[in-house]
Design brief:
Helix 5 crosses helix 6 and helix 8 packs parallel to helix 9. The protein is globular and about 70 Å long. The protein has two domains: 153 residues, Lyase, Ornithine Decarboxylase, Chain A, domain 1 (Beta Barrel), CATH 2.40.37; 258 residues, Alpha-Beta Barrel (TIM Barrel), CATH 3.20.20. 30% of the residues lie in helices and 27% in strands. With 440 residues, the chain is of the alpha/beta class. The structure holds pyridoxal-5'-phosphate. Pyridoxal-5'-phosphate (PLP) binds next to helix 10.
Amino acid sequence: MNFRDTLKINSAGHLEIGGADTVDLAEKFGTPLYVLDCAYIEKVAKAFFDTMKSGYGEGGVAFASKAFSAAAIYKLIGGLGLYADVVSKGELYTALSGGFPAERVVVHGNNKLDYEIDYAVEKGAGYIVIDAFDEGGRIDAAAKRYKKVQKVLVRVNPGVEAHTHEFVRTAKDDSKFGFSIKNGDADAFIKSVFKYENLEFCGLHCHIGSQIFDRQAFSLAAGVMTDYIKRLRDLYGITVNVLNLGGGFGVHYTSKDPLYTADDYAGYVAHLTAALKENVAKKDIKKPFLLIEPGRSLIAEAGITLYRVGAVKDIKGIKKYYAIDGGMFENPRYVMYRSEYSAIIANKANEPFSETVTLTGKCCESGDMIAVDILLQKAARGDIAAVFSTGAYNYSMSSHYNGNLTPPVVMVKDGEAEYIVKPETCEDLTRNHVIPSFLK
Ligand SMILES: Cc1ncc(COP(=O)(O)O)c(C=O)c1O
């Protein structure tokens, strides 16, 4: 459990987040409920941002907003001076609706649609990251239409793959993202990008994986990318001014994962920037403006999800289920990746973790689980279960499966709690449904 100042057990023996008692939150806002601790996001964002400035200088931190895309989040991180990476027109629209400055937006996507390119160029997105051969011409045409010069980066595949505690230089290059350095696609595309009069080639992007704890993975990526920057300069006289090293910093989901504080994230950035500076000096290349794109690490641990326990099913000697009022419609990560979570019974937080139970959802799928065989307190119908580290890729991956409503999101700070996403109603489910004339 990632307990801290703003996530603790209070004197009533209840779980408290951002100064708010979770039992009161469940009572006031209902369940299931996503809750975000504003102070945690601010603290980690500041750690990333400040270390980038002090350890490197010319650089920026882009929140990978696929982790949590909501107007208030863009407002918060925009106010903290961060960039944001977006992967669709919808995310860009949401960012702008939260007052996020377009010039600090980095646009991604392995298959950007024409209307998405058009919208990004029209709104003045800071960088578009080119991911496919035909994108150069398509972005150029849009820029020409708007009489603009669009800054672009090129996403390359450095052949470094990192996950949790492992990283490898991989010979395999089968990613759907980016141009392979190894097979020559990256060289071929980058040499050709200068023919587009309405594009300004600024530099390179790579992203090596997710839930990465080993800092060496990032120094390896910095090494490979600076080798490549040098190669572009030596072979073709091309200068790289911007280097975006992506995201992927790990977070604590269960006791198997390290417990990281904001200082640890600052340490990641310090390590990465030191490695980059060393490579730049050694290879005598121009020091690039550095971007990183943390998603999960900025927001996962800020989030908890509150549920009401319903049916308790004890299949003696086999399995014990606590069925909750959420499920794969609001957290599909177990279903998609077998992701693991830890939890607590929020109104019995001081009681012993005496039961091995599975938190199962309410969807009509036997695989609809949130956390399997975890230790929890003894609970009964009506108790409040809180699942930790649900701030990233939960709300943003939610669906209406089985006609369930996406839960609202509440942000807490200094004991105050306010919606940042209001509750849905059944009318929201049918808002866009129409009966065709031949069925009338
Ligand atoms: C291009 C890019 N940048 C950043 C991220 C953020 O990764 P994470 O949330 O693991 O930090 C992702 C995640 O998929 C990504 O694809």
